[in-house]
Amino acid sequence: MDGDGADRGLNPDGTIAREGSLHRVDPVFAPVVAAARERVSALFGDALHGAYLYGSVPRGAARPGRSDLDLMVVLREPATDAGREAVRRLETALDGAFGQVDGVGVLVEDAAAILADPHDGGFFTACLCTPLLGSDLADRLPAYRPTSLLARETNGDLYLFPERWRAAADRGEEVRALVRRAARKTVRSAFTLVMPAWGGWTSDLERSARIVGRYHPEWADDLRRTAAAALDPVPDPGLLRMVTDGLAPRVAAEYRRVHGVKAPR
């Protein structure tokens, strides 16, 4: 027992279990999921390899009016500029049509790229994504364990992000959106830093912060604030500076020491 219950997000053989399911989608989100399925299918047709939900909606943890809807569209060939522009329009249309979601984000990938990057895109697809349409690439990917290699190849790039977030703030990007993005990446990276020692997987950001705090009590307060901001982002420049100039660089430095860094893609 670790104080958060016995569930470590693992299958009986110790591999990481797929965390979501269509059966876990709260009925309040069913209409937006149904609309996403219909519109993605109509938009891409035979070019579509598959589509997936990820994030809080398929985990059954989404909160009406406060959570966003996350989708990944996987194409048979790399997306064209026209296809990516169509996806941006889809995001806007779904977000505007359904008040139960606070934003819609759609990743666009191609099947070959995911299969060529098994410890990042592959893990994301096989363990963090829930099939919605088409073929499931998890059938062609390995099983995953909470190892140092998995940590490095998923979040060993945190060192690159503080400068990017500061540049986005300097360009005038909306602070609330930046807070959400920076907070999520930082808490998730902090969790994967300790993931091999803890021996399991969770995408729950508040739980992640608590787990990391046991290994790094000097970060506990900042992690708690950051996890709260990831779930309920606020336009707080001071909090953004705390993450970009304080917490994230400290986590990135420890990541480099413990797991090494992920080479830029």
UniProtKB/TrEMBL annotation:
<dbReference type="Pfam" id="PF01909">
    <property type="entry name" value="NTP_transf_2"/>
</dbReference>
<protein>
    <submittedName>
        <fullName>Nucleotidyltransferase domain-containing protein</fullName>
    </submittedName>
</protein>
<dbReference type="InterPro" id="IPR002934">
    <property type="entry name" value="Polymerase_NTP_transf_dom"/>
</dbReference>
<keyword id="KW-0808">Transferase</keyword>
<feature type="domain" description="Polymerase nucleotidyl transferase">
    <location>
        <begin position="37"/>
        <end position="87"/>
    </location>
</feature>
<dbReference type="InterPro" id="IPR043519">
    <property type="entry name" value="NT_sf"/>
</dbReference>
<dbReference type="GO" id="GO:0016779">
    <property type="term" value="F:nucleotidyltransferase activity"/>
</dbReference>
